[in-house]
Design a protein that fits this description.
The complex is a heterotrimer. Chain B is an alpha/beta fold. In chain B, 43% of the residues lie in helices and 17% in strands. In chain B, helix 2 crosses helix 5. Among the domains of chain C are: 167 residues, no CATH class; 102 residues, no CATH class. Chain C is 59% helix and 9% strand. In chain C, the strands form two sheets. In chain C, strands 2, 3, 4, 5, 6 and 7 form a six-stranded antiparallel β-sheet that branches. Classes of the chains: A mainly alpha, B alpha/beta, C alpha+beta.
Chain lengths: 149, 191, 655
């Protein structure tokens, strides 16, 4: 068993080291163009149904990307840029609903459902375990005896 | 044959079952009711964050080469109409726009400014000359005017009051009577 | 002529379905086998009606019979033959007709398959349920969604043809039919579930009957979804394959519940547990296919599939409500018979893993459903207009997906009833090393980013576990070790791993850029070399096509194009893709040189999409695995029926 345990430790060590190395070093500084693309990915292309302004090739998407790049070059913050675009198109131009208000429900409900699900599972497991460890009562013994007679 | 252990649980089991069923049923009924009362996507009017605020600047070159600046039209109601020659509802609303423009040409209290949305200037020039468009049609290379106004797709029209603020946004075809109503309502509010 | 034939066939199908309902209903009530047999024959009439209606529609399309409104709206003299034929399902009414055709086919196969058990009320109730569904769809066609309606006014001489997006690629001939074979296929297991609830025969018999049906329906639905993704990639030109579009979601949500079901039934077969879960999942899957049809067809949400608004929306929604109501009432009524004889002894067991699996898939389905309908709900509550798009779905379903991958790795190694830590650690050591190895290789190769690397690690873990099972099985049984439910399932798991890994890679490591190039000029992106050669214009029967010829990596020439259809509003981009093992070079023509202004430069969009080939391979592997899983294995002894199964009805049948 010790050899197995060592093997597990080895595998986990390699995994953790590789993941750590892999998580860093992606630190290429964000150029304005990259930053503009990243921000554009949060907005819906105005004339499309689901594509982001970063993905779509529609004219309106290209305009949006150009304007975002302008705002980035002007030195505005991410939040200011988002607010600027929402002030023109309305809040449904954002692909991710805001986290407050009614829209916040779409974030909160899955988390709540997850908590309920885990709690339900835990409760069910505990009930099953207690049921399987219950021992017969005297009533049960009498019932069995009566049936065997 | 039920054992005493399970018999104790049976009424509880049925009761929980009924409760769960009732909860799910209520949720489903509410869900179905909501879905059933939604108008289809095409009919939904969007609110615009521009309403009640100063209209974004609209400066450009018209098809005939003249310079157009909407801020110079202050004192009149301005209907900014985003259109394209490939857009079927735009073609359908054109007669209504003509009617609206002619009606207010005499009184001089309202005018129309057209903005090209995502179209080739050669098609637009042909359209303007064929259809006899009597209001300035501004080109929008780069789509910046459409961006400033938050236009999703043609036809979209914005009614700007005499002080230069956006009074209403209309998505889809406009009708001259409806526009007149909007103008008189705005006038009544002193705009 | 086609109109008369078609309308008549639709009415015939409706009448036959209704007669089937009535006859079988009486046959069940009076326990009269003669009536039950008679009811069966109506299935053949329904099939004949569907075939006739389909034939009439295809005939009308092929002969360009523009007196029919459907042909006038969707047909054209200049459309190539293939797309004229597939035009049958290019719009609303035709797709209902396709649904009815597939349903009648399934109904007939079911009736024939169970012909020896005509007297069995279980089979009777199931057939009745399918007749009810069939009556609904034929009723839709007889009423608001009539494909054979005539044009009002003058007959046009030509039509606009199908939507240009549906004329671009031969896949349009496969994606809808396969998808429907899946969607509609779930009607049969659903019918049996309803029958089991109604008759109270909730033992494992009905499950075993319908196991293969469910597997086939699931397999077709999987293939249909994968082909839809492929079509999106090849045709739509945005370089992606999954946009969390409402219609994509509408097909995905029932797939999720169906996947949970095909796993969870194993627990019921073996230990008689999780019955309410299984019934609920099956009933939910079918209800969700109907809800999905509503979301797609009613115009309530925009999409490339939402052809037109129509009054049939409320009808489909009503049908959905009816199904859900009936399901809840039935389960509530029979709740006492659904007690399981056993319990789950330990969370660390195969049963525990399947239960967790159910919960996770249900959560997944809930999240996707919530995100899809939330804009409607939010607007109803306080008029807010919000969008829920790709970023939301990716962020919320990501953790669920990762957990499912983890579960996929450990579940095959978990024994039934109870697992010991030692057993697990022995069985999972090789998969653990494969996970570590995969991540190490990726990190060494220079790939960065925690989320994609984690995805690769979990993929390696799950893939390793699946391969281990297959190797053990093949060692024991030779080639037979690759067929049968468990082994086919492992192959499907491998396919899922490939898809998951490719999904993670394409979201993390794609590179895209637009290049403005003069003829002869080249550009580089992510290790690939593209050279713009020239532009050609081509006039075809149904479209004008401007294509830019681009040489990729010094090899073949690819031709992304812009296509203009006569009645369409804008030019449709047609991408050209160089597929490779490591990545795809995805080319689009963003703007062509404008001869009128003397411009010679073209703007070419280049997207390097990693691991796309693996994605399609994964999808194919899932299909192959499903086929292998359905392979009849050696006859297994059925587990003894649990104690709570009621005594079966015998001899109460008059003959």
């Amino acid at each position: 068993m010790t050899r197995l345990r060592l093997s597990w430790l080895g595998a986990l060590a390699v995994l953790v080291v590789a993941l750590t190395i892999g998580s860093h070093g992606a630190g290429k500084p964000e150029t304005p163009t990259r930053r503009a693309m990243r921000l554009a990915a949060d907005f819906r292309c105005p004339t499309c149904r689901d594509l982001s302004a970063a993905q779509s090739d529609a004219e309106t998407a290209k305009t949006m990307r150009a304007r975002i790049l302008d705002l980035v070059r002007q030195g505005r913050t991410d939040r200011a840029i988002r607010a600027e675009i929402v002030s023109r198109y309305g809040s449904d131009i954002l692909l991710k609903p805001p986290a407050s208000g009614v829209a916040g429900l779409v974030w909160a409900l899955p988390v709540a459902a997850f908590v309920v699900a885990v709690a339900g599972l835990g409760f069910a497991f505990r009930r099953w375990r207690s049921r399987s460890t219950r021992s017969p009562t005297d009533d049960d013994r009498r019932l069995v005896e009566a049936a065997l007679r | 044959m039920t054992s005493p252990i399970d018999a104790r649980d049976l009424p509880t089991r049925r009761r929980t079952g009924v409760w769960v069923a009732v909860v799910i049923a209520t949720v489903m009924v509410a869900f179905v009711a909501v879905l059933a009362t939604r108008p289809s996507a095409a009919d939904r009017q969007a609110e615009s964050p521009l309403l009640g605020r100063p209209a974004p600047a609209l400066i450009g070159t018209a098809v005939d080469g003249s310079k157009v600046d909407v801020s110079s039209l202050r004192g009149k109601f301005v209907l900014v109409n985003f259109f394209a020659t490939w857009c079927v509802p735009c073609l359908q609303e054109h007669p209504e726009l003509v009617r609206f423009a002619q009606r207010h040409q005499a009184s001089g209290d309202a005018t129309v400014v057209g903005v090209v949305f995502n179209d080739s200037m050669s098609s637009v020039r042909k359209y303007v000359s064929d259809k006899g468009v009597i209001w300035p049609v501004v080109s929008d290379p780069g789509g910046n005017i459409a961006f400033d106004y938050g236009v999703r797709g043609p036809p979209e029209s914005f009614l700007i009051d005499r002080a230069g603020n956006v009074v209403s946004k209309i998505i889809g075809t406009v009708r001259a009577d409806a526009l007149d109503r909007l103008i008189s309502q705005a006038k009544a509010r002193g705009l | 002529m086609s109109a008369v034939l078609g309308s008549g066939a639709v009415v015939l199908g409706l009448v036959a379905s209704l007669l089937g309902i009535v006859t079988i209903g009486f046959g069940l009530r009076r326990r009269d086998t003669r009536l039950l047999s008679a009811g069966r024959t109506y299935a053949w009439v329904v099939l004949a009606a569907a075939l006739m209606a389909t034939g009439a529609m295809e005939l009308a399309l092929l002969r360009h019979d523009f007196t029919l409104k459907y042909v006038a709206d969707n047909g054209s003299r200049s459309t190539p033959l293939l797309f004229t034929t597939t035009g049958m399902w290019s719009a609303l009414e035709g797709s209902i007709l396709l649904w009815a055709l597939v349903l009648s086919g399934y109904l007939t196969v079911m009736v024939r398959h169970f012909r020896d058990r005509v007297a069995d009320p279980l089979v009777g109730w199931a057939t009745l349920t399918v007749f009810v569904v069939s009556a609904f769809f034929f009723g839709l066609m007889a009423g608001p969604a009539n494909p054979f309606r005539l044009v009002s006014g003058a007959t046009p001489s030509d039509g606009p043809g199908p939507n240009p997006l549906l004329q671009n690629h031969p896949l349009v001939a496969f994606h809808p039919p396969l998808l429907y074979l899946g969607y509609v296929g779930f009607t049969i297991p659903f019918a049996f579930a309803v029958a089991a609830l109604v008759t109270g025969r909730l033992g494992e018999g009905w499950l075993v009957e319908t196991r293969r049906w469910t597997l086939f329906a699931w397999g077709f639905l999987t293939l249909g979804i994968v082909l839809g993704a492929w079509w999106s990639y090849e045709v739509l030109g945005w370089g992606g394959y999954w946009a969390w579009d409402p219609v994509e979601n509408a097909s995905f949500i029932p797939w999720l519940t169906a996947t949970a079901y095909v796993h969870s039934v194993m627990v019921q077969e073996r230990r008689g547990m999780l019955r309410i879960w299984n019934l609920s999942l099956l009933l939910a899957t079918f209800s969700l296919t109907i809800l999905g049809t509503f979301l797609t067809r009613s115009g309530v949400l925009d999409s490339v599939h939402a052809f037109t608004e129509s009054t049939i929306g409320p009808l489909i929604l009503g049908f959905f409500g009816l199904i859900v109501a009936v399901s809840i009432v039935l389960i509530g009524w029979r709740a006492d018979r659904l007690r399981s004889p056993g319990t789950i002894d330990s969370p660390a067991s195969r049963e525990g893993a399947f239960l967790a699996n159910n919960v996770l898939f249900a959560a997944f389905a809930f999240i996707v459903l919530l995100g899809t309908v939330f804009p409607l709900l939010a607007e109803a509550i306080n008029g807010d207009r919000i969008s829920v798009g790709g970023p939301y779905f990716n962020r919320m379903t990501g953790p669920v997906g990762f957990t499912l991958l983890f579960l996929m790795a450990i579940a095959p190694a978990l024994p039934w009833r109870k697992a010991s830590g030692e057993l697990l650690s022995k069985r999972l050591i090789w998969p653990a090393w494969s996970a570590a190895g995969v991540v190490a290789l990726c990190a060494l190769a220079g790939l960065r980013g925690f989320v994609p690397l984690l995805a690769f690690a979990l993929g390696g873990f799950a893939g390793g576990a699946a391969v281990r099972q297959l190797v053990l099985s093949a060692r024991r049984q030779g080639w037979r070790g690759l067929v049968g439910r468990a082994n086919g399932g492992m192959i499907v798991h491998l396919g899922v791993v490939l898809v998951a890994v490719a999904f993670a890679a394409s979201h993390a490591y794609a590179h895209s850029k637009e290049f403005t190039l003069r003829p002869g000029q080249s550009a580089e992106l992510a290790g690939h070399h593209v050279t713009y050669l020239d532009t050609r214009t081509e006039q075809q029967r149904n479209k004008t096509s401007i294509s830019a010829r681009v040489r990729v990596d010094g090899g073949k020439v690819y031709a992304p194009a812009l296509q203009r259809f006569p009645f369409a509003t804008q030019a449709i981009g047609s991408p050209s893709v160089k597929t490779g093992w490591r990545d795809d070079v995805y080319l689009t023509l963003v703007s062509a040189p404008d001869a009128t202004t003397g411009e010679t430069t073209a703007v070419i969009g280049v997207l390097i999409q990693p691991m796309m080939m693996w994605l399609w391979l994964g999808g194919g592997l899932m299909g192959v695995g499903t086929f292998l899983a359905a392979w009849p294995g050696r006859r297994r002894r059925l587990p003894t029926a649990p104690a709570s199964e009621p005594v079966q009805e015998l001899a109460g049948v008059r003959s």
